Amino acid sequence: MSQDILDRLEATIRERRTGDPETSYVAKLTARGRKKMAQKLGEEGVEAAIAAVAEDKAALTGEAADLIFHLIVLLADAGLTLDDVRAELARREGMSGIAEKAARG
Ligand SMILES: N=c1c2ncn([C@@H]3O[C@H](COP(=O)(O)OP(=O)(O)OP(=O)(O)O)[C@@H](O)[C@H]3O)c2ncn1[C@@H]1O[C@H](COP(=O)(O)O)[C@@H](O)[C@H]1O
């Protein structure tokens, strides 16, 4: 239990991608393809936004967990890892949001 929950979840997702779609949601979603994964990510994002506007903290917590789960599934399918995202966030660290946007052009 030394790893962070996100690292453990990512490892499980990467392991289950090639599992049995009958018993694994990750394997089932992976078999359905990138478009379905993207659709699920969008749905969870909208559900999280709705929960936030409704000021429902419990719902927002659950939807945020769904959103992060589906994001990791999509990243894994795209050959990316949470470390790639961490590196991008570290690159931005200390920059103002406005300067970061300008640097991106
Ligand atoms: N964190 C999650 C997680 N969060 C959400 N979900 C699933 O995401 C789905 C989203 O629910 P929806 O109602 O939107 O979708 P649905 O109707 O079930 O399915 P769709 O047909 O719309 O895809 C549900 O089936 C949830 O169970 C998750 N499924 C798995 N995990 C983690 O992934 C691990 C591996 O899971 P398996 O691949 O199932 O073994 C688990 O041990 C968990 O740690």
Question: Overview of this structure, please?
Answer:
By secondary structure, this protein is mainly alpha-helical. It has a single domain (5-80), classed as Orthogonal Bundle (Helix Hairpins), CATH 1.10.287.1080. The protein has 6 helices and no strands. The protein has helices at 5-16, 25-32, 34-53, 57-77, 82-92, 97-104. Helix 3 runs antiparallel to helix 4 (57-77). The model has no long low-confidence stretch (mean pLDDT 94). Bound molecules: phosphoribosyl ATP (PRT).
Bound molecules: phosphoribosyl ATP
Structure class: mainly alpha
Number of folding domains?
1
Beta-strand residue fraction = under 5%
The CATH topology is Helix Hairpins
Shape: globular
CATH level-1 class: Mainly Alpha
- Average pLDDT for all residues: 94
Distance between the termini: 42 Å
CATH superfamily: MazG-like
Count of separate DSSP helical elements: 6
Question: Helix coverage percent of residues?
Answer: over 70%
Could you give a short account of the major beta sheet?
none
Q: Which CATH architecture?
A: Orthogonal Bundle
User: How many β-strands, per DSSP?
Assistant: 0
| Uncertain regions spanning at least 5 consecutive residues | none
